[in-house]
Structure formats: structure tokens, C-alpha cells
């Protein structure tokens, strides 16, 4: 296969999706040109310019760093068609109208490069019909590329071929979308709304119907169908409000227009629900119009009531008994719900049954196999498990019988029986659709393995579905060298030692510290390098406060000082280890987690890494070397410049720590100084370990040695005075509390090196002592205790 490289992408359409797709391309360092229609008035790029400006304000942010919006090249179809020639991939994301898309294709076809892939982001139009207008030369390189909103955060991208798409083209695109963009690819058949929206919207409609059947209210339903059910925490109706009820109506209409009772036996349940019709009529489109199923009035949440057409107080939760049922093992859970006396239990069983029924009936037509359906629901709808996984977990045949009984009793959405493969043959024998041989393909009548593209070799531990028992489990994979309750040290290849924290949120407890120190020791003796990687996010939320507080209660500040000293020693041990230690970061790396990262020789960070020193939030200062790191980095940055004044290099790091700033992406974390330019940012979370191991090996292979221990200059008392003056202004202006001022001044004192002359040369140990003393002073303060207790009980910072 010839090498397909995406050097530049064109995105056509700067609407909700196009602009955000362009932003994500910038995030992953792919040059992008964003097109839209020429503006009728003012500069011709007006529409695109406005969209790009809008990206900076959108929440959650589509950009890793807002200023990077400037990297999106702006274009319009009147002046810039020639730019298309430079692009290896052209993604069309204009309004969902077949005629408009076809017109545009005719217009752009002569300008698309011969080797380029052209792909449509349509949510549900026929990809094959779209391809028909294209010249024969482009048809083999045309397909569907369906992103989910918001594209930076949603994992799923569905790729859809036409009968004329060259298979190689889809493989090339899958490799780019997976490794380059960090997405999870599902291959969908060219059927209306493809896989995720077909199953997901049918699920939403079924939920709305059952809500009416069982006479439940939206607040109770959202309480039941959110996190407790293993789904997105916004539940059913708040999700609809967030998506926009007009958008939802649009997707429902695609189902209504493109399906019929012949092609979908559930068709009759696809009618637009009366309440949705009413809300659309009233112009209550959800979050964007500030009213939908829910509406916020002051601090109160109200819910819409169809009968009265009024908003009434919401906030009701389901009876606790259902939450308890939902915590039971799958088989028991489904049985309990089905046999429940109360409407909420029966409702939950009904929506789950409908989802199993729908997925089974359609598996043969909408997707190649059951894995694609379950992955689509996980990645596109934020479900913890797809429908087939849950069904299989609960006992395949038992559940199948319950579904069929309900169908026969007229309780299901339609009379279509479950397909034969459910009850007889390989699936029934295996007890489900996901097996060690692969997942069930109803169209091919066999289990099919995962696609073996070279790009997947980079995922050592791909996200496995329930039942995919042939996939390795990282918790037990490789050779275990040492294992405690808190940490496992292991290796895959005998060359690189991997340390995985097992604590909740990967908090750094004394046991973790001990284990990591031993791991470094071992790595130096027997390995080329070491990687700190703990599987799922977060990387680490920092020192285990719950473990530290009892030490304080019993032994006072002295006991805490010795814990801090050990933590600092660990950081130094890692920094000066004789082998490279690589931190593989995904999600939060906070406080001690951030320190662990910055004291490592290198960081390999997933694009969604949120790094910061947050100790101020709990009334402390970083105590394990975070401040010493900030001072040292400032000195290093100054040394790399022609300046002799350290203060400008210190300000950013000081502010980040004093304001407990956390990067909202790896890119922003780098701006805060917690990642270096030489660190690696990885788009796909499942490639993190692969990249980290390879970094460790290549560092070792290129003769890596630990840095010299050297003295470095600090800003001293004059720097301290300058920073303090600013803090005084902030306090007197009411921007920070008196206690924030106190902590800020202590941070300033450490990063400036205390009461010494500007430019004095200090050692890391000297600063670490200052840092430790500041930490131990603060931990004895009542206001700090208030902050710690507040954080431990509510998870939110207390400002006192
Ligand atoms: P949008 O309405 O926000 O943007 C559409 C863009 O198309 C606008 O910038 C508009 O100027 C441009 N446009 C309109 N008519 C045009 C024409 N005749 N020729 C060229 N450009 C034209 O739409 P969107 O929500 O970004 O959707 C774009 C595509 O992505 C659609 O196919 C939609 O189905 C699909 N999609 C949307 C979502 C979503 O959640 N919004 C999710 C996945 C896929």
C-alpha cells in the first residue's frame, strides 16, 4: 500500500461541526484550511472569520489553546478554490441538504487533488447517493466521515463506504483518524443515520414513549437514565436540551423520511413525540433558547409539563430503591427491574429491553458486527456499555427469552421477533455476541475479529468490550515484578519497567511512594528505562490527603514534614535516576501528580491532559518540589535567553501555582510550563503506553544520562518584593482573600529563594527545604483545615 500522508486538510463548511473539526485538526498539529460561502457583504471570508472567532468562546473549548484559532487558514469558494489542490483530505461539513451538497461537489471536483480523499460529515444522508454526482476519478476516494459533536471530546468517528469506495482508502483514512486525530473508528453501513444515531435516537424515542406509558416526570427519568444507568450524566432530557431540540427533530425526521415499515419494523414508534412538537412550536429549543424540557428560573430548575404547557418545579429524584437495583450484578439487575412493582423499575427494564430488541433486529443491516454497535454507543453516546455487552453480561439466553416473552405479550415497541441467531447456533452456544474469536456479524453469520490494521499495533491495550476475552488486560498483562495494594511494577519486554498506581484516582500514598522508589532502584539495576502509566485516567490526583491528615492528627507538623521529605526524595530519585523515567499522562495530573510528571525525565501526554499545581485550593503550597521546579525552570529559561533578569521568567510559573491554574488540555498545560516543548503529545489515549515505552527505549539507546546537579540563580528579596506588591494590590482590590494572600506570599518566598540577594546561586535541596517548611506551616493552620475538609467532603474548593 502506498503511504498516505495527511499534510493538509480542507474542511468545507464553517458551521457548528466544520469549525470544530478544523479546531481539532489544529489541536493535533494538522494544517487546515476552512471554507465557507463568500459573505454577501464585507470581506469575502466573513462567514469563516466569524466562525473562527466563535471557536474561542465556545464551551467546552474545541481548541486546546484558544489563540491557536489563528492557525486555521480561512477561505471561501469564490477566491480560494486553488487551495484545495494542496489538501490530501477534504471533509465536507455543510448544511444537511442533499441538493446543496451535490452542487458543492460539482463545483469543487475539478480542484480536488488526484490523490486526495473526499469525505462527507453528513449525519444521515446516503453516502452512495452523494457519490453519484462525482467524476469517476474521485468516486473511489469518496466516503462518509461522521464526527460526533463536540468533535474534540467525542471519541466516535463513523466511516462509511459506497460500493465504489476503494477499500484501501478507508484503511488509510482509518489510520489517520485513529492515530492522527485520536478517535475511535466504527465502520458503518450506508443506512439512514448510520449506527450510533440510528440506535441512539431510536433509544431516545423509545425512552420518551415509555415515559408517557409509565407516567414519569423528566427529572426522575434523568435521574434514572444518567450515571446510575451507566450513561452520560445529563440523562435523557437534559442531553436533548444540550443537543438542541431542533437538531434532534432533524435527526428524527431523517429517520422518518428515509425509513418505512418495510425497512424498519419499529417505524411506528418514530413519530415525533407530542411534547417535542409542542416545545418546538413554542420555540423552546433547549439550552440555546434557555428553555426546553427544563428551564432555569433564578437558581431553580423547572420542568415542562405538557398538559398545562407550563414549567413546574423540578429536581425530584427516583426512589433510592432503584439506584440500589441498578448497582446489582447485571443478571439480577435486569430481573429486579422487570419484576419491580413500581413504574420506574418497569420503565428501566422497558427501555433496556427496547434497546436490545432494536439492536438485535438491525444488526444485520446497519453494521458489520456487534462490536461496532457497542463501540458506537460507548464512543458516540457516552455509554459505559453498549446494548449487546449488557445483554451478554446479564445472561444471553435468559434475557433473550424475557425479551421474546415481552414481544409476544405486546409489551415491546413492535412485534418483530428476535432474529434466529439470537436463540440458535454459535451466539447461543457462546452465550453472547462477543467472544475470543471476535464479535458476531449477523450479515456474515460468523464471529469476526477486530480489523488488523498496522495502526492498531500502537494500541497495546485497546479498550475491550465485555466478552472480548482474547484482548489482553493490562492489570495482569506482562510479567509482574512486584505488586502491592497500591502499586504494580511490571514489564512487557524485559527492557522497560512499568509502574502502575492502583489507588483510587491514582493518589500517591506512602505505599505508592515506597513502591515507586523501589521501582526506580530496580529499573536502574535491570532495565533500560521506566514508565509511569496507570491505565485509565487520571494520571494522578496527587498526594493522598486522607492518608496525610491522620499523620498530622497524631504526629503534628513534624510527622507531615517527614512524609513531605520522603516525597521530595522520591522526586529527586526520579529526576536523577540512572535510567530515563517517562511519565505517561492522561487526564488529571494534579498537585503531587503534577510533581511526579515534572520530575520525570520526559512526559508523554494525551491531548486531554489537565496538569496543574492545585494545592492553594486546599490551603497549602506544593510541597514535593513543585515550587522548586518553577524556580529552576525560570533559571533555565533565563539561561537560554540573553536576559539577566529572572523575574519575567518566574511570573508565569508563580501565577500558575498561586492561582492553582490547571491546563485544560495538554497544549495549555504546556503553556503553563508543566510540559516542555520536547515532551510528546499523543492524540489517542490507547497509544500512550506504546509511545512512552518507545520514548524510554530511544532515550536509553541514545545514551541518555541524568542531568547534572547544579546550582541556579533565584530572584531573591527584590523579586519577592515585586511579587508581594502585586499580591497586596490583589488583596486590597478584593480579588483574593487575606488567606490567599498569605499563601501567595509564601509561594513567592519559595520561588524567589527567600531572603537572599537577587541572582544568588542556590541548590534544589535549599529550595526544597523552604518549600517543605511552608507546607508544614500551612498544614497546621485552621483555615487550611477548613479547605481540606471542604474539598474532601464536597470535592469543591472552599474560599476562606
Ligand atoms: P451548520 O448549519 O452549523 O453549518 C452549515 C454550514 O454550511 C454553514 O456554515 C453554511 O454557511 C454552510 N452552507 C449552507 N449552505 C451551503 C451551500 N449551499 N453551500 C456551501 N455551504 C453551505 O451545520 P452543522 O451542524 O455544522 O452540520 C454540518 C454537517 O454536519 C451536516 O451534514 C450535519 O448533518 C452534520 N453533522 C452535524 C452534527 C451536529 O451535531 N450539528 C453532528 C454530526 C454531523
TrEMBL record:
GO biological process, one term: fatty acid metabolic process
Molecular function, one GO term: (3S)-3-hydroxyacyl-CoA dehydrogenase (NAD+) activity
Domain 3-hydroxyacyl-CoA dehydrogenase C-terminal: 194-295
One Pfam family recorded for the sequence: ECH_1
3-hydroxyacyl-CoA dehydrogenase NAD binding domain residues: 8-190
Catalytic activity: a (3S)-3-hydroxyacyl-CoA + NAD(+) = a 3-oxoacyl-CoA + NADH + H(+)
Pathway assignment: Lipid metabolism; fatty acid beta-oxidation
Gene3D superfamilies in UniProt: 1.10.1040.50, 2-enoyl-CoA Hydratase, Chain A, domain 1, NAD(P)-binding Rossmann-like Domain
The protein's Enzyme Commission number: 1.1.1.35
Keyword Lipid metabolism set for record: yes
Statement: the UniProt record of this protein carries the keyword Oxidoreductase: yes
Enzyme class, first EC level, given as a word: oxidoreductase
Keywords of the record: Fatty acid metabolism, Lipid degradation, Lipid metabolism, NAD, Oxidoreductase
SUPFAM superfamilies according to UniProt: 6-phosphogluconate dehydrogenase C-terminal domain-like, ClpP/crotonase, NAD(P)-binding Rossmann-fold domains
PANTHER family: 3-HYDROXYACYL-COA DEHYDROGENASE FAMILY PROTEIN, 3-HYDROXYACYL-COA DEHYDROGENASE-RELATED
Protein name stated in the entry: 3-hydroxyacyl-CoA dehydrogenase
Originating organism: Acidovorax delafieldii
The organism's taxonomic lineage, starting at the top: Bacteria, Pseudomonadati, Pseudomonadota, Betaproteobacteria, Burkholderiales
Amino acid at each position: 500500500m502506498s503511504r498516505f500522508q495527511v499534510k493538509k486538510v480542507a474542511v468545507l463548511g464553517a458551521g457548528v461541526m466544520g469549525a470544530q473539526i478544523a479546531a481539532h485538526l489544529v489541536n493535533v498539529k494538522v494544517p487546515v484550511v476552512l471554507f465557507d460561502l463568500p459573505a454577501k457583504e464585507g470581506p469575502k471570508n466573513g462567514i469563516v472569520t466569524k466562525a473562527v472567532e466563535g471557536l474561542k468562546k465556545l464551551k467546552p473549548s474545541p481548541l486546546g489553546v484558544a489563540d491557536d484559532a489563528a492557525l486555521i487558514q480561512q477561505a471561501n469558494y469564490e477566491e480560494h478554490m486553488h487551495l484545495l489542490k494542496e489538501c490530501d483530505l477534504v471533509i465536507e461539513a455543510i448544511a444537511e441538504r442533499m441538493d446543496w451538497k451535490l452542487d458543492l461537489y460539482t463545483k469543487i471536483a475539478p480542484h480536488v487533488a488526484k490523490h486526495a480523499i473526499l469525505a462527507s460529515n453528513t449525519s444521515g444522508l446516503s453516502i452512495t447517493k452523494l457519490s453519484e454526482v462525482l467524476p469517476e476519478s474521485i468516486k473511489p476516494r469518496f466516503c462518509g466521515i461522521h464526527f460526533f459533536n463536540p468533535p474534540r471530546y467525542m471519541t466516535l468517528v463513523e466511516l462509511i463506504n459506497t460500493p465504489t469506495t476503494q477499500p484501501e482508502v478507508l484503511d488509510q483514512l482509518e489510520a489517520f483518524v485513529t492515530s492522527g486525530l485520536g478517535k475511535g473508528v466504527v465502520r458503518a453501513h450506508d443506512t439512514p443515520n448510520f449506527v450510533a444515531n440510528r440506535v441512539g435516537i431510536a433509544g431516545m424515542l423509545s425512552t420518551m414513549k415509555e415515559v408517557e406509558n409509565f407516567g414519569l416526570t423528566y427529572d426522575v427519568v434523568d435521574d434514572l437514565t444518567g450515571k446510575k444507568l451507566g450513561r452520560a450524566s445529563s440523562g435523557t432530557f437534559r442531553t436533548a436540551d444540550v443537543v438542541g431540540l431542533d437538531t434532534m427533530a432533524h435527526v428524527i425526521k431523517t429517520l422518518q423520511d428515509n425509513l418505512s415499515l418495510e425497512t424498519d419494523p419499529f417505524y411506528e414508534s418514530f413519530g415525533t413525540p407530542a411534547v417535542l412538537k409542542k416545545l418546538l412550536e413554542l420555540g423552546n429549543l433547549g439550552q440555546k433558547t434557555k428553555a426546553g424540557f427544563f428551564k432555569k428560573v433564578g437558581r431553580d430548575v423547572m420542568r415542562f409539563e405538557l398538559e398545562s404547557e407550563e414549567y413546574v418545579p423540578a429536581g425530584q429524584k427516583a426512589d433510592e430503591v432503584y439506584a440500589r437495583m441498578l448497582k446489582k450484578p447485571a443478571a439480577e439487575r435486569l430481573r429486579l427491574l422487570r419484576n419491580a412493582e413500581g413504574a420506574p423499575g418497569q420503565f428501566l427494564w422497558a427501555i433496556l429491553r427496547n434497546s436490545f430488541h432494536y439492536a438485535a433486529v438491525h444488526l444485520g443491516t446497519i453494521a458489520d458486527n456487534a462490536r461496532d454497535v457497542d463501540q458506537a454507543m460507548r464512543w458516540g453516546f457516552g455509554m459505559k456499555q453498549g446494548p449487546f455487552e449488557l445483554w451478554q453480561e446479564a445472561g444471553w439466553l435468559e434475557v433473550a427469552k424475557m425479551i421474546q416473552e415481552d414481544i409476544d405479550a405486546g409489551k415491546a415497541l413492535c412485534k418483530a421477533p428476535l432474529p434466529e441467531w439470537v436463540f440458535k447456533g454459535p451466539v447461543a452456544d457462546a452465550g453472547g455476541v462477543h467472544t475470543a474469536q471476535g464479535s458476531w456479524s449477523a450479515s456474515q453469520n460468523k464471529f469476526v475479529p477486530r480489523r488488523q490494521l498496522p495502526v492498531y499495533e500502537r494500541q497495546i491495550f485497546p479498550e475491550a468490550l465485555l466478552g472480548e476475552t482474547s484482548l489482553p488486560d493490562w492489570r495482569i498483562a506482562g510479567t509482574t515484578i512486584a505488586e502491592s495494594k497500591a502499586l504494580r511494577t511490571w514489564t512487557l519486554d524485559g527492557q522497560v519497567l512499568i509502574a502502575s498506581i492502583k489507588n483510587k484516582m491514582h493518589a500517591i500514598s506512602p505505599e505508592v511512594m515506597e513502591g515507586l522508589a523501589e521501582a526506580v532502584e530496580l529499573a536502574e539495576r535491570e532495565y533500560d528505562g521506566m514508565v509511569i502509566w496507570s491505565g485509565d485516567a487520571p494520571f494522578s490526583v496527587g498526594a493522598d490527603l486522607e492518608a496525610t491528615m491522620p499523620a498530622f492528627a497524631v504526629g503534628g507538623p513534624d510527622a507531615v514534614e517527614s512524609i513531605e521529605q520522603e516525597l521530595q526524595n522520591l522526586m529527586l530519585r526520579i529526576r536523577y535516576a540512572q535510567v530515563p523515567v517517562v511519565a505517561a499522562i492522561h487526564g488529571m495530573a494534579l498537585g503531587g501528580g503534577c510533581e511526579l510528571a515534572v520530575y520525570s525525565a520526559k512526559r508523554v501526554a494525551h491531548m486531554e491532559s489537565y496538569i496543574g499545581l492545585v494545592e492553594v485550593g486546599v490551603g497549602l503550597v506544593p510541597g514535593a518540589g513543585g515550587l522548586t521546579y518553577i524556580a529552576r525552570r525560570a533559571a533555565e529559561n533565563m539561561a537560554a535567553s540573553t536576559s539577566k533578569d529572572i523575574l519575567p521568567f518566574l511570573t508565569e510559573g508563580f501565577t500558575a501555582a498561586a492561582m492553582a491554574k490547571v491546563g485544560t488540555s495538554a497544549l495549555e498545560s504546556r503553556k503553563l510550563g508543566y510540559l516542555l516543548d520536547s515532551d510528546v503529545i499523543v492524540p489517542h489515549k490507547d497509544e500512550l503506553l506504546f509511545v512512552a515505552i518507545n520514548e524510554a527505549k530511544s532515550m536509553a539507546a541514545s545514551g541518555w544520562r541524568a542531568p547534572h546537579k547544579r546550582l541556579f540563580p533565584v530572584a531573591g528579596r527584590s523579586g519577592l518584593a515585586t511579587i508581594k506588591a502585586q499580591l497586596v494590590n490583589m488583596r486590597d482590590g478584593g480579588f483574593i482573600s487575606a488567606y490567599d494572600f498569605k499563601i501567595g506570599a509564601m509561594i513567592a518566598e519559595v520561588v524567589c529563594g527567600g531572603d537572599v540577594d537577587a541572582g544568588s546561586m542556590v541548590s534544589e535541596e535549599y529550595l526544597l527545604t523552604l518549600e517543605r517548611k511552608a507546607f508544614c506551616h500551612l498544614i497546621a493552620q485552621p483555615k487550611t483545615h477548613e479547605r481540606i475538609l471542604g474539598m474532601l467532603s464536597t470535592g469543591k474548593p472552599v474560599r476562606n
